[in-house]
Design brief:
The chain is α/β, with parallel strands linked by helices. It has 14 helices and 8 strands. The chain has 3 domains: 119 residues, Up-down Bundle (de novo design (two linked rop proteins)); 211 residues, Rossmann fold (3-Layer(aba) Sandwich), CATH 3.40.50; 57 residues, no CATH class. Strands 1-2-4-3-5-6-7-8 form an 8-stranded mixed sheet, with helices on both faces. Helix 2 runs antiparallel to helix 3, helix 4 runs antiparallel to helix 5 and helix 10 packs across helix 11. The chain starts with 7 loop residues before the first helix and ends in a 6-residue tail after the last helix. Keywords: Hydrolase. This is Alpha/beta hydrolase. It holds the Pfam family Abhydrolase_6. GO terms for molecular function: hydrolase activity.
Length: 398
């Protein structure tokens, strides 16, 4: 699916932003007009135009707020948050680029302003974690004990984005939702400089511990949803955290080893990954040809606190579910996207390795849902996800 851009990565990130329109994260005309001003494949142009749109919408939010127009202000703040997130996305080429923290900070702050104006019950919480904390939003329907969806993103998502991706839909269906950021994500990497870790059970267990202190949470009906790289992280956690009643991998990911990218069929002789000079030469050439690889490498070095490509490869080596997937006990849903340009084929690998009750759910291009994490088809994804989850958790509604 190509929208506006010929560059696949730019087209996908535009689709990702557009896909949050049903939950208040975008207005289609705003996104398209922004995209048409961007030079295809130019990271600086992407930042400039999305930031310009975010600032304009932010100003409208402030104006509406001053006039007492609560609903309009909330809607403007939500869209501004998503647009700032999108503007910050490609700011990885310059280490410690000050625009990254400033733009991401505005995405978080405008979302916080929107939260204050919501009819939904929302709490910003800090979950104790290894001498520090994990930032989270706890969304609840009411004071009753209810099933709860735990959701986290992946390689590049933020806790604020998870509202558009999952929390809003969960609330509509009577679920509480806890959206949190772990190591390598959101504020945890940007403010605390804590990088990704492969043993995600050590991240999720404190989250579960926290939820069990909440009287609004049904302890027998807690489900975990991981998005994108979260398709590895969530199953990894579920393999060792057995208080979860269900696990969803969107999309399923069996391995996230960067070294494997350079040993693919039809790519010539294998690269000597121990030779830093040879490796840097190869990556330099490939990054000039692919905006996706250029961004992925730069973002990886940022989120893993890696000083070199060789170090990034070493730090991602443990990111595999080989010998782990068969330890998952709870019912697990593995989602797959027909045209996934990141992890095609990996959902099937994960599904085949599972020995627990399992479901494979494929999303197709004909449905408009064939892109990575079904971007552009968020409503359809949530429809199918929550039908599965209702049935798995034994929920029946009049």
């Amino acid at each position: 699916m190509k929208i506006v851009f010929e560059d696949q990565t730019f087209s996908f990130e535009l689709l990702r932003a557009l896909g949050y329109a049903p939950y208040g994260g975008a207005d289609i005309g705003e996104c398209l007009s922004t995209a048409y001003r961007i030079e295809d494949g130019n990271f600086e142009s992407w930042y400039t135009e999305w930031y310009k749109t975010a600032e304009r919408i932010h100003a409208l939010a402030l104006d509406s707020s001053e006039k007492g127009n609560r609903v309009s202000a909330r809607e403007f703040y939500l869209r501004a948050s998503n647009y700032y997130r999108n503007a910050e996305f490609f700011l990885r080429d310059i280490p410690n680029d000050p625009r990254m923290l400033e733009t991401w900070g505005k995405s978080r702050d405008t979302f916080s302003r929107a939260v204050e104006l919501m009819d939904t019950l929302v709490e910003k919480v800090e979950i104790p974690y290894e001498g520090t904390y994990l930032p989270a939003y706890f969304y609840r329907v009411d004071d009753a004990q209810r099933p709860t969806l735990i959701v986290h993103g992946g390689y590049d998502s933020t806790g604020e984005e998870m509202y558009f991706a999952a929390a809003a839909a969960a609330l509509q269906r009577g679920y509480n939702c806890l959206a949190f950021e772990g190591p390598g994500q959101g504020a945890v990497i940007r403010e605390q400089q804590i990088p990704f870790r492969h043993d995600w059970e050590n991240v999720v267990t404190p989250v579960v511990d926290y939820l069990l202190t909440r009287r609004e949470v049904d302890p027998q009906r807690m489900a975990l949803l991981g998005m994108s790289l979260g398709g590895y992280l969530a199953p990894r956690a579920a393999a060792f955290e057995h208080r979860l009643a269900a696990c969803i991998a969107n999309d399923g990911l069996f391995s996230f080893r960067f070294g494997e990218k350079f040993h693919q069929p039809n790519q010539g002789p294998p690269v000597d990954l121990s030779d830093s000079i040879e490796l840097d030469k190869l990556i330099s050439v490939l990054m000039k040809k692919s905006t996706n690889l250029r961004w992925a490498i730069r973002n990886g070095m940022f989120t893993f606190n890696a000083d070199s490509i060789k170090e990034l490869i070493e730090k991602t080596e443990p990111f595999t579910l080989d010998g782990v997937a068969d330890k998952i006990k709870c019912p697990t849903l593995v989602c797959a996207a027909e045209n996934d340009h990141f992890f095609k084929g990996q959902p099937q690998q994960l599904y085949d390795a599972l020995t627990c009750p399992k479901t494979f759910m494929n999303f197709t291009s004909e449905e408009g849902a064939g892109e990575h994490c079904h971007s552009g088809a968020t409503v359809l994804f949530n429809h199918r996800l929550f039908e599965w989850l209702d049935e798995t958790l034994g929920l029946k509604y009049e």
